[in-house]
Amino acid sequence: MDMREAVNRFVRDGDTVVIEGFTHLICFAAAHEIIRQQRRDLTLARLTPDLIYDQLIAAGCAKKLIFSWAGNPGVGSLHGMRRAVESAQPGPLELEEYSHFGLVARLSAGAAKLPFWPLRDYRGSDLPLANPLIRTIECPYTGEQLATVPALNPDVAIVHAQRADSSGTAQIWGLYGVQKEAAFAASRVIVVVEEIVPEAVIRADPNRTIIPGFIVDAVVCEPWGAHPSYAQGYYDRDNDFYVAWDAISRDAKGLEAWLNEWVYGVGSRAEYIDKLGEDVVARLSAKPRVCEGVNYGF
Amino acid sequence: MAVRAARELSDGDVVFVGIGLPNLACNLARATHAPNLVLVYESGAVGAVPERLPVSIGDPALVTDSLGVASMADVFQFYLQGGRIDVGFLGGAQVDRYANINSTVIGPYAKPKVRLPGSGGACEIAVHAKRVIVVAPLSARSFPAEVDFYTSPGHAGKYGTRRELGLPGGGPLRIVTDVGILRPSPQDGELELAAVYPGIDPQEVVEKVGWPLRICAALEPVPAPTAEELHLLRDVLDPQHLYL
Questions:
Q1: Are residues A190 and A253 in the same domain?
Q2: Interchain contact B104–A (C-beta under 8 A)
Q3: SS3 A145
Q4: Residue A289: which of B43, B64, B127 has the nearest Cβ?
Q5: Is residue A44 part of a domain?
Q6: What CA–CA distance (Å, rounded) separates B31 from B233?
Q7: Are residues B117 and A71, on separate chains, in Cβ contact within 8 Å?
């Protein structure tokens, strides 16, 4: 399936959408297609909204953000998100805030189909005041007061991975983030990969599989689909772009011009990568560091 | 500050590393007195030995040659909540009298003057790490008597003391600033001045914080950064001056 069809069929106005990936494997290709198809009133959940949700928010796709750390890592603020929060541009944005552990726990509960997840956290913190969904429960065994967060079960999770077979059985190496939890918590799952490989390749190394194809609704092959994020073994993070985003996004007009050129102005990820140019692709392409493999014999 | 923070680490410590200066400090410590430091990043890299200075806490260089990669659920539940982390690093826009830290908002939460990034993993690091090192430049604005928002718990405050709250970790035990080091008093957890750097007048530090800062009877000696430490920082670890 191509990205246009996957977004068209599985992402709907008003959905709760999780596009995860912690620094690694953030699927910008999917976000750009959501922007092009002008989805509206989305509730966007992610630990770190990052540039990907800054762009979705600035494009007017979001009504609410669920998050735990909102910044441009090592650079500064997310200006698109701040404009939405501080001056309702292009529309108001409701915030629901956790710590990383809290949001990870929400997805763990969602994946396990439990109503909540207990954690030893938040005592001495104002976070439960800021977010009344952070509550407490008395442990039935010890009497200890534990914090709880409610399950997060998104309508759709979009998970980027290095490779999958045609059924969507997906393998990830490098940083996992919460890709597995997001996929198992969601009602609909779109897997986006750098490469579709024969099932035999997956079966030759089963310990690397994190998502089984039978929970996946759509598999999209989208090389360089995570840029300016990265895919270990394929391409590096485009740190220069993360730095440049600060100036691009500082005022609404600049950000809009960027969206016009790089999102609305291209029809697909392949066009975006063409536009990015050979020099950037060459600069970011991963050098080989191949592991030896193991004996699965018996 | 990177040198002072690095010296707070002991060889063999398991350190939960944050981005920015702590990242640099940990890699400096590993290159000098603490070669067996185990770097754990909240992104999941365990025993990282980054070949280049990581630009983010999710840098791919943290994975290459690491001891292992954990899911973030494992990082927070098993490593941090499980009590396996010796040292956590925190920064923040505000640090108060009892080392509560604010990285959420300046002003009221509903109508903030400045919206900051938020907790990330800071709250749980403050709750669980056996000891926390805070790195923050000292100024009246950033060291008020009480934080505007309690993101990460210190030693005492409106919710009570760490003991009353039953927090498992040791909390912020060293506050490394650009002029000296603060530490909590063993009696009541209030931060007091433990050391000043060469050429700094303790009185000057007292004037910069938002509460009547007590000065320890015997200030700790703080040797100046060595030529080797400076060389490693400037020429080897951060040649592009990403953090310095």
A1: yes
A2: yes
A3: strand
A4: B64
A5: yes
A6: 10
A7: yes
- Tell me: do A191 and A257 sit in the same domain: yes
HEC string of A173-241 equals CCCCCCHHHHHHHCCEEEEEEEEECCHHHHHCCHHHEEECHHHCCEEEECCCCCCCCEECCCECCCHHH
Residue A86: pLDDT above 90?
A: no
Residues of chain A found within 8 Å of residue B43, distances taken between Cβ atoms: 22-24, 175, 177
Is position A296 within any domain?
no
CB A17, CB A42: distance < 8 Å = yes
Quick one: A178 and A266 in the same domain?
Answer: yes
| Whether the predicted pLDDT of B120 surpasses 80 | yes
Same domain for A9 and A90, yes or no, is yes
Q: Supply the pLDDT for residue B244.
A: 78
- What digits encode the pLDDT tens for the residues A148-205? 999 999 999 999 999 999 999 999 999 999 999 999 999 999 999 999 999 999 999 9
Cα separations (Å) of B18 from A247, A281, B39, B72, B92? 25, 29, 10, 14, 12
What are the backbone dihedrals phi and psi of residue A188, each rounded to the nearest 5 degrees, phi first? Answer: -125, 140
Domain count, chain A: 2
Closest listed residue to residue A272, CA positions, set A219, A224, A221, A220: A224
Whether residue A166 sits in one domain with residue A279: yes
Please give the backbone phi and psi of residue A193, each rounded to the nearest 5 degrees, phi first.
Answer: -130, 160
Same domain? A61 vs A194: yes
Q: Tell me if B162 and A124 make a contact (CB, 8 A cut-off).
A: yes
Between residues B52 and A165, the one the model is more confident about: A165
* Mean pLDDT, residues A39-65: 98
Q: Is the overall model pTM greater than 0.95, yes or no?
A: yes
Residue range B126-142: mean pLDDT, rounded: 96
Q: What are phi and psi of A16, to 5 degrees?
A: -90, 120
**CATH number of the domain residue A160 falls in:** 3.40.1080.10
Judged by DSSP in three states, B103 sits in coil
Which chain B positions have a beta carbon within 8 Å of A176's beta carbon?
Answer: 44, 69-72
| Averaged pLDDT for residues B30-55 | 94
Average pLDDT over residues A247-269: 97
Question: Residue A172 corresponds to which tokens in the numbers above?
Answer: 């990830």
Lowest mean pLDDT among A6-10, A230-234, B139-143: B139-143
Residue B18: pLDDT above 80?
A: no
Kindly state whether B107 is in contact with chain A, defined as any CB-CB distance less than 8 angstroms.
Answer: no
What domains are there in chain B, each with its CATH number? 2-237 (3.40.1080.10)
> Residue B2: what pLDDT?
92
To the nearest whole Å, the CA of B144 is away from the closest chain A CA by 17
**Average pLDDT estimate for A99-128:** 98
Alpha-carbon distance of A218 to B30, in angstroms, equals 45
Which residues of chain B have a CB within 8 Å of the CB of A239? 55-56
DSSP string, A104-126: HHHHHHHHHT-SEEEES--TT-S
Domain that holds residue A137: 102-150
